[in-house]
Amino acid sequence: MNEKDEVKRALVQAADAARFAPSIHNTQPWRWVVQGDRLELFGVAERQLHEQDPGGHMLLLSCGTALHHARVALDAEGWRHEVDRPAGEPLAVLRPVERIPVAPEATRHFQMLQVRRTDRRTVTDEQVPEDTLRHLVKVTEQNGARLHVLGRDQVLALAVAADRAQHAEDGDERIAAETAAWAGGDRPDGTGIPASVLPEEVPLTTVAERDFHTTGTLPAGDGHDAAATYAVLYGEGDEAEDWLRGGEALSRLWLAATEQAVSLLPLSGPVEIPFTRQTLRRMLGDVGFPYLAVRLGTLDPATSAPPKTPRLPAGQVIDVA
Ligand SMILES: Cc1cc2nc3c(=O)[nH]c(=O)nc-3n(C[C@H](O)[C@H](O)[C@H](O)COP(=O)(O)O)c2cc1C
């Protein structure tokens, strides 16, 4: 194979691996275009949650996780690459530069990308060890964002914020209809959240998980969140590029957590509602912009992970120009 074909193959593979990326309500709001020796990432307005996420923040975080996933795949193939994040569309452009030896951690990250998933069951009574938390904070910092671990009082403030955000979204008919279109029921088309990964009942926890108001079939366990750690992913900016970078950091953080057998559950409601987002911002001492609240915890190794959430076929998210 000549170098040109090799690059093209690597780019298609990277875009394909990015299909594993997490996204708000599994909307997968991205499209990749392989353009010569470049891979371009675009946001897809038809798969934006226009009611719940009018500013596109969750779309950008989701596209950021896809961008990071594509980069992990290039690393695992031994391609040193450049990334450009032009302000606007495309959101990002990846360009392989040269072949380099594959680093062992690149292979591990690539494996984690296929193992990682959202687990909405309750966590165990075992806390995430301090040194693991420190590692996760460091990894986030090295990847363009920050992670603020909440103290006890702040967890209670987050619990109130999560309730208020849920209440605000439940009270908005258009948001409720939008959620119903993406969660529960049978979804053969590879988007949205199937009943198999949603709890039978929303667990009773201090900080409530998102209630999708649909019957799930996942046994959630009889635990709670007394031993969970809550944290806020945040960054220095509030522009589109900052949210995209926030998504890249989220992906890196989530893969690192998966590697350490730590479960990460995103709680985006409090960030979506401006009033509760302000509460989160105060928790950061008004110095940064909150992107996402997350629950970190340990899972019972004796129980098996929930089923995988399906994805759109490659043909619907990748164009080869
Ligand atoms: C930006 C973002 C926000 C999310 N917010 C929530 C949330 O509030 N509640 C929840 O249960 N899952 C949330 N998720 C998880 C997605 O629903 C999940 O990634 C998607 O359904 C795909 O499933 P998977 O992560 O198991 O591959 C969020 C994910 C992302 C990337």
UniProtKB/TrEMBL annotation:
UniProt keyword terms in alphabetical order: Flavoprotein, FMN, Oxidoreductase
Secretion signal span: none
SUPFAM superfamilies to which the protein is assigned, alphabetical: FMN-dependent nitroreductase-like
Flavoprotein recorded as keyword: yes
InterPro entries assigned to the protein according to its UniProt record, in alphabetical order: Nitroreductase-like (IPR000415), Nitroreductase/BluB (IPR050627)
Protein name per UniProt: NAD(P)H nitroreductase
Organism the protein comes from: Actinoplanes couchii
